[in-house]
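Hi C.,

You asked whether I'd gotten around to modeling the 196-residue construct. I have! Everything is below, sequence then structure, no commentary in between.
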Amino acid sequence: MGPDKNLLDRWRTTELLLLGGSAGSFKLLFQMVKLLPDDLDKTVIIVIHRKRNFFSEIAKLFAENTRISLREIEDKDVLKKNTIYIAPANYHTLIEKGGYFSLDVSEAVWYSKPSIDVTFESAAEVYHDRCMAILLSGANQDGADGMLKLRRHGAVTIAQHPEDAEMDEMPTAAINNGGARYILRTDEIFKLLHTQ
C-alpha cells in the first residue's frame, strides 16, 4: 500500500524536504537521493550525525548517483530549489527568515552536532506548512522534538516505521511524542519521493 492521497498532494506542494537520520540511515538516504527527479522544484536538507570526513565520502557517492546539485552547507548560503544540502559536522545548521543558512557552534544536542532538532525547529519557524520532514533510523531521540514543533506549525511529518529502521529509537521517539503525523514503511517513503 502506498501513501494516501492527502500526503501525495502535500508532497507536490512542499517547498522544503528535511531528511534526518543517524545510525543505520546512510544507505537509506543514498537510495532516497537517487530517487529524486531533476525537476524536483524543492530544496532538500539532509541532517545526519557524522564525523568530519563524512562529506567527502557522501559527496563522491551521492554526486555520482543524484540528478540534482549536492553541496555541503556553508554559513550564509542561500537556500535554492533543486539542490540537496548536507549539514556540516561540528556545527548546528539553522534556517533563517531571510532564506539562508546560519551555522552555530553552540553545545551538542543529544551528543550530536549537527543536531536534527535544531535544524527542524528552525525550519518550522520559517517554512510552516510548506515543509515536509522525514525522520529515519537512529540510536537516540534527536529529531523528535523538532518533528513535534514542525507538526504544530503545519508541516508534514513522517517517521520511518520502527520495524523497518535499523535502529528504531529515533523514529519511535517521534511517534511517542506525537511529532510524527505519518508512519511509513521504507517502500512507502520511496513511492512518495518518486511521485511527481
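If it helps when you're writing up: The mean pLDDT is 91.

Thanks,
B.
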